[in-house]
Amino acid sequence: MAEWHSLDTDLVLERLGSRREGLSEAEAAARLAEHGPNRLVERRRRSPLLAFLEQFTEVMVIVLIVAAVISLFIGETVDAIMILVIVILNAILGFSQEYRAERAMAALRRLAIPTVKVRRDGQVVEAASEALVPGDVIVLDAGMRVPADGRLLESANLRIEEAALTGESVPVEKIRGAIAGDGVALGDRRNMAYLGTTVTYGRGLAVVTGTGMNTELGHIATMLQTVSEERTPLQGRMAELGKWLAIIALVIVGIVFVEGVVLAGEPLEEMFLVAVSLAVAAVPEGLPAVVTISLALGAQRMVRRRALIRRLPAVETLGSVTTICSDKTGTLTENRMTVTMLDVAGDSLTMSEYLRQAQPSLLRDDAAAAEEGAPPLDRDFGLLLAGAALANDATLQRDKAGSREFVAVGDPTEGALVVAAARFGLWKADLDEALPRVAEAPFTSERKRMTTVHRIPAADDPGGQAVGFLRDLAGAPWVAFTKGSVDEMLPVCDRVWNDGAIEPLSAEWLQRIQTANNHLADDGMRVLGVAMRPLDSLPDGPSEEALERELVFVGMTGMIDPPREEAGQAVAECRTAGIRPVMITGDHPLTALHIARTLGIVTDAEEAPRVVTGAELARMSVEELEEIVEGVGVYARVSPEHKVKIVEALKAKGHIVAMTGDGVNDAPALKRADIGVAMGVTGTDVSKEASDMILLDDNFSTIVNAVEEGRTIYDNIRKFVRYIISCNIGEILLMMLAPLMDLPVPLTAVQLLWINLVTDGLPALALGLEPSAPDVMRRPPHRPNESVLARGLGVYILWVGVVLGGLAFAAQVVGLQVLRTPAWQTMVFTTLGLVQMSNALSVRSERRSVFRIGFLGNPALIGAVLLTIVLQMAVVYVPFLQGVFGTQALTVGELGITVGLAVLLFVILEGAKALRRAAA
Ligand code: ATP
Question: Could you tell me the distance, in angstroms and rounded to a whole number, from the CA of residue 680 to the centre of ligand 1?
Answer without folding.
Answer: 18
